Each structure stands twice: as C-alpha cells, then as structure tokens.
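The material for today's practical consists of a large collection of protein records. An example says more than a description, so a record of this kind follows:
***
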Amino acid sequence: MSFLERFFLGDDEKTATNTAYMGIEEDSAVLFPVPNLSPVADSIVHRCSRILMLSIDQLHQSFEAEVPEHWRQPKDYARNLVEYCSYKALRIEAKRLDHLNDKEFSLLTFDMMLAWEAPDTDTESLLKEKVCSSNPESEDDDDDDDEGSLFYESATRTASQIDGKKTVGLEAFARIAPACAAVADPITVHNLFDALTSCSGGRLHYLIYDKYLKSLYKLLQSMKNVSGKSNNYKFNLTDGEIILDSDTKSVMQHNGTSTKPGRLTLTSHALYFEASGIASYDKAVKYDLSKDLRQVVKRELTGPWGARLFDKAVMYKSDSVAEPIFLEFSQFSGHSHRDYWFSIIQEVLNAHKFIRKYKLKRFQKEEALSKAILGIFRYRAVKNPFHSTLSHFKSILAFNLAEKLPKGDKILEALYSHLELMQMEFQNHAGLLAISEEMPLVGPLPDSLYALTRMGFSLLRKEDNPANDILVGNVHVGKTCPLQTAVRESFCYSNSVEAARATFYQVKVEDINTNLAVIKVVYIYAEYEIFDDFWGWIWYTMPCIFFSLALCMFWHKHHNIGKPAEVFRVSPPPSRSAVELLSMLQDGVSQLQTNVQTGTIALLKLRALLLAFPQDLDFKTTPHVAASLVIVAVAFSMAPFRYLLALVLLEVYTRRMPLRKPSSEKLERRVKEWWSRIPAAPIQIANPEYNNSR
C-alpha cells in the first residue's frame, strides 16, 4: 500500500483494507472445484460461502442446480459463478441496517466488481494490459514530485490517483451495484457510474466508491431523523409520506404581486411552503403533487418589480391555484440550486404520473415511489460531495430519465412488467411463514421498497405492512433483465439525438435579423420552386379566391339588410405599472426571438431531409419520408377527397378519447423523437463587407 493511501485512510480503514487484500492470497490457496479462477474471484467465492454458511461444494452444487445449463457454458462459467455467489451473499448482507456504512460491505462489493470484471486468469491478464496502456502513470509511489502534486488537487481526484490498478469498469458496476437497491437502480446505474468517475477517466476507484456509500448512509440517517421529527413543521404528514428535502435559507414565493420568504419542503406526495413569521413559520400551503390536476413545473425568470432578469425560479401551475406560483431560489453562484429543486420536484410528479397511468395500487405504488425516493437520495449523495452536474441524458433520477430519453416509455413499460412480476412473487409467498434463504436465485432480490423499509422509512400503511420480508428485485444471473434491455435501447437512440442537438448549436444564432435572413433565403427558394412548378395553377387559384370573397360579401349584404351592426367587443388588459409593461415587452421580444430560432432550425431540418445531406446520421430517414410522401400521393390520387377528409376529422376528434388516448400519446412521442434525431443543415453566415472610404 502506498504512502498516500495510508495517509488518506484512517487506522480502521487501513486494517480493513489490508485484511481484505491479504485475504485474497490466503483464500486462493484453498482448493476449489472450478479451475482457472482469478485470485480475486476465488476469494469472492470463499467469502460468499462463509456469509451463506455453506461449504464450497454445497455452493457449487447449488449453482449447478439453480442456474440454467445455457448459462453454465465454459466461456462464461466463471463470471456467472461470481454473479451467483455475489447475489446470494448480497441478499444476506443487504438486510443489515448499517451495511452502507460498513467497511467490510464496501470492500466486499468492490471486490465482487473486480471479480466480475476478471473472473479467470486469462481475463485478468488482458484487463491488466488494457488498464496499464490506458494509464501510463509512474508506479513509483516514493516519487516526491508526484506525491507533492497530489496535495494541490481536489480530494476526489487525489483519491482516484492513489492506486490505478484496482479500478472497476462500467459493466462490472452495472452488474453488481443494482443487486443492492440502495446503492444503484438498473435504470440509472450507467449515469451514476459516469457521475462517480467524472474525474477519474471512466474507471471507478475504491476510495470514491466508499466515499459515495458513506455519503449515502449519512444522508439516509439524517432524513430518517427529519421524518421522525416532523412536528417541527407546520403541516402533518400522511401515512407513508416521507420528507425528501427542505430549504430554509433562500426561498421566496411570488404569488401575483405578493412576495414572501419562507421554508420550502418536498415530500414524496406534496410540496409545502411555510412563510416566515415573527418567531416561527406560518401555516404551510400545500401543493399536492400526487393528484391529476394538470400540474406543470418549469424553470422561470424572476426579478424585482416583475422584471424577468434572473434565471433562478421554478414556476408551478395547476388547477388548484388561481395563477402560477413562482418559487425563487436566491443563489449568488448561478442557478444550480434551482435546477436541483426543479429536478427533484419533477421526479415526484413523474413518479405519480406513472402510478396513475398504470393504476398501481398498494405495494406496486409504494415500490414506484420508493424508486423515486432512493433516486433523489442518491442524487443528493452524489451532488454535494462530488459536485456533479448532470447533462440532458445523464440524470440519475429514474422517472425524469425515462421522460427525457427517446423511447423512454419502453422503460416505463418494462418497469410496469417488473412490478407485475413483483406482485405475483409477493402473492405466491403471502401464505408462507418465512421465505427460505435456499430459494432459487432465478427469482428476485430485495428491491427499493424493501430497502427503504429495512432502513426505517415507513412508506406502507400500518394495515398494509407485511409481517414477512418482501424479496423482489431486478437482477438475474448471466443475462440482462428486460428493464436493462429497454434502457440500453433508449440510450442507443439518445446518441443520435445528442449528435443532432449538436448541429442545432452550430446553426443557432442569437441575432433575430440573421434568423430572419435565413428564413428569407429559404422562403425565396421555396417560392421559386413553387412558381416554377405550379405557375399554371396560379391563374386558376387567384380567381377562385377573389370569386369566393365576392360571394361571401354578397351573402352578408343580402342577409344583413335592416340589421344593426354587431359590436366588436374588446376586453382591455389589466392595468400594469411601467416596469411591468417593460417586462412584458422584453418577454415578448424574447419569445419572438425564440420562435424565430425554432422556425429557422425547423427549416434547416427540412432542407436536410429534402436534400439528404451526408450529415444525416440516420441514412434511412430521407428514404422513409420519401416513401411516405409517395403513399400519401397515391392515396390522394386514388381515394375520393371526402373520404380522406372524413379520416382526418375522425383522427382529430377521437385522439383524446379514453380508448385512443394511450396510442395517440405514444404516436406523438414517437414523432417528436423522430424529429429530434434529424440534424440541421449547415449554414454559413457571410461577413458583411464595409466600405472603408468616407
């Protein structure tokens, strides 16, 4: 162990670390029936056997009996054996209340990831070569210059440079971490890994992983104490309602012309605002996030006297409030604090939207809420110690990510199927006095609701609280579960969306005159094409328009003889101050500029589709659009127009009916996702030539 590693670890941590790594060599000397296991994999098998209180032979026989034969092929035998032993042992370890704060647990799970990544000697040697080639750093721990430079870096970067050999990759973390619901979720495990390795080159170091677990444990303990002392708040929590976060320093509520400072609290069901009083807080105003009230939450600008100057507010609008509510987070260092609150409020809203969509009840409902709650706690545990900022598709909040990702509804469908499986598993075990630890592992492991319940958070009502443990989960030996498959497919589509989004920033210009110039060029081009191809039709179209207007005027002249002229009523706008009028003018200009930019990008997308640019990442897009246009042309040429018009009207008036609403929403989402994947055609802004002569 290097000098720096001993410096940053405490005495207890040093002892545990030395014991764990020395145990690998000691355990590897024991004879095991599977040959060619790497030392760390052999150590994991022996440590799991001690946790399960089984002999090596018994554990091996259990693996042979419970895992299907096609997952016991020689190529993946060692890795699947490591998975099997790890999942069985983690089922036991996750039951301990303090497992996240236990050094032995963090060492065990990290070694499980190492063993999964290098289960046999051949894989271990290849991995060492790969890591060494990607990290050409000096291995001399006694180099004074290298050691001295580390003290000027951040604590996270220092930890990541202590030992470059013992690191874990993405796939190993994604396979082992979700087995403990508190540690990671199958939907967001890849984004969590990216957040933890943002400063360590895509490899997870043990000290960072251990720091994350301890941060999560401290946060869970703190929030459990806060929920237990809910009498300090001016509102009453309902059964199963958990406090997720509270802000007492910098929140201002703008309700019309009224502005009040106070305390903002988010729970698993609602948002509470308590205005500051003379000695304490006033009675809380509740904004219920669990009901279907057409609620909208979005980022907004605020400022003094109604001026929209600072991007630090969250707007809340629903049927329960007369006008939108603005919650301003007064932060001097940007809008990151506002973005955090916006994300967690939106996560609770999306979780309840998912519950209503699939009509979840009892344990299924609480399991969905538990996923959202644990996701928010993980977000807080990563955000504060690691100062992580999440990009568009890198959220570690499961329901927010499913809403953002292309085909994210497939993720929610897979999650609903998993909840159905969970319900069947619970019903099958409802009549048992206890669940045997020897049950086959092809069934599930402890999941979010079970994890929160074991940690002291009571989401279930007293009459729903079961006497037995709920053993459900979403990890399986040797294969990827349907939920993880749906996540991978969505991420594949997100790559093309991100690439298309990059082209928008290349062609996006802030100057409204430049945007209008682009639109003018496209308009002239379209006008030329129309007049060139359809010039002959103009001589028939214009007379028809004029003749129709004349008939309309004669009709009104004939039927309105002797009738008084109808008064055209205009409702005047409410009286506003000069500052508010200037703010409205600024908002109008800003909205106009945004609309012009959106129109410019739309025209450039259409140009890319029409001319089939090589920049189009999906080469099938243009042929598909062309084929669709051919089908429409054939339909117009063969079917009578009245039938086509009837179909259009039928579509418009029935799309929101209960029978068609789910399919209509899915179609709208697919069209938006398809449109977002189309890149914008490149443009070049010509520099104006100035005449220097006077």
Notes: The chain has two domains: 1-228+358-495, 508-534+579-684. Confidence is low (pLDDT under 50) at residues 1-31, 136-164, 431-446, 467-472.
